Input
Amino acid sequence: MPLPPAPTKRAALLSAEAYSTLATEASDLIPAPEVQPAPATRPARSGRGTPRRSVEAPAAAPGNASATASTSATAPVQAPAPQAATATTARGRRGAGSQTDADGATIARAAKSPAAPEPRTTEVTAVAAVASRSEQEHPARRRRSGPTSRSGVKRLFVLDTNVLLHDPMSLFRFEEHDIFLPMIVLEELDGHKKGMTEVARNGRQTSRTLDALVAQQGGDMAQGLRLSATGHQSARGLLFFQTEPLDNTLPASLPQGKADNQILGVVSALRDRHPAREVILVSKDINMRVKARALGLAAEDYENDKTLDDGELLYSGALALPQDFWTRQSKTIESWQSGSHTFYRVSGPAVGQFHINQFVYFEAPGEPSLYARVTEIRDKTAVLKTLKDYTHLKNAVWGVTSRNREQNFAMNLLMDPEIDFVTLAGTAGTGKTLMALASGLTQVLDDRRYTEIIMTRATVSVGEDIGFLPGTEEEKMGPWMGALDDNLEFLAKGDGGNAGEWGRAATNELIRSRIKVKSMNFMRGRTFMNKYVIIDEAQNLTPKQMKTLITRAGPGTKIICMGNLAQIDTPYLTEGSSGLTYAVDRFKGWPHGGHITLARGERSRLADFASEVL
Output
């Protein structure tokens, strides 16, 4: 009989437990073994144990001591193998239920004989071949050994109802992994479909999506429905519905009638039914995730709606140039004059960090400062355009001058007719509303660039709601527009000069006639043409609401979004999932959009100190 091939390096390093796991999986997947023993070495067997015995111990057949002795005399001794013999014996007892005690005794005696190394070599090679073939035929089932035991298996995500009500497209956000929907989730979806709220709309959209998935041709709920059947090619997994009751063993302290506990029971039953897969509960409910982890179940938050994991990573809109910037650019820089602006064409590693309409500045002691905006990026070069200095009184906008570097950047964005979308972020007292209003009044009343100012905001109260408000739409929005009134009072007082009481009254009336206060609830379907739109408190908007407002812009309209991400009042948003964060990240680098984060408060020393320490 020819000698068996030598074991591979990876097979030789496998532990005895790995042999057992691999052999069990291989025998379940492929009934025909890769290595067949000689017919005369063992008596014929039938049933499932036959291929497994032929793969595991071909040279340890009962009643064939001479064959064992000859094999041990001719086969090279690879290494002492007490562990392999033990594993072979254990598998021999577990592999075929019809084996007799005499069989087990014979296997034990063969394992103690000097011929043990030869079956170990054959067994390792055969198992490696079967496992390799298993990987090719079943890519979802990968070889599980060591710390990467679950990395090759597709996960099974159990979705909570609040995930579907939060994002109806969450079904298609899990790439190649599978999704399982418990029956109680469908029941809760049915209870949220009535009404005109955002939650009700999401519930109805989720129901329509599930109906389209169920109606796909050739779909079988028992085998799973293809998530890519409705055109979402990024979703390569399957959707499973609960089609039968699942036995679960939850503690008696958890009442079975509660929907959350029923979902936890489904997750526990799926984990027991599919031990080879990683079953994970996905929920927006923090308490439910805590209960799941207390029961030993894997639970995660739905994070696909988060634009950023950390608010500190938000694009600031400004970048400080390195101290050696001019030294590096001394030989390759180009500059030219166009009107009151100077342009510089620069190159080097710093260009890789630039974005269109990003502000760059150079400040060093003893050297002239540079404040510019990136207007063009091509290959490894960028064009910088110097800014208009709004800190000087001659460039005051409706009597307002910028007091710091970031405010000067913001004024350049607000006064540029080529910029259609501006986002301003900053703490309380940084001058967001004042600068936006002053720029709007100048461009509406003086430059006649826009016809009127439209102002709106998210009506989310800080504390308890005070109830219904009387009057028309604009009168109802009056209590929410206190910031508008405060800033208009300041701007009208500064512009009136010595005109007296009648002059100030006429100015206020003129200003009021060009400012319209609108509610966000009635924005659907509208189109604003040649308008200057201000969206205040934008941090309380969801990404969908932000999209609804921005898409109202018609020809010649400019939109300014302002907000403080540290003052989110709605309980369902965070800094990472806010609509303001979403807009800043998506418009980053757009030639007709700009963003700046205002750093220093200018309201008063009290407000500035309070925003830092409280």
Q: What stands out?
A: Residues 517 and 549 are 14 Å apart (CA to CA).
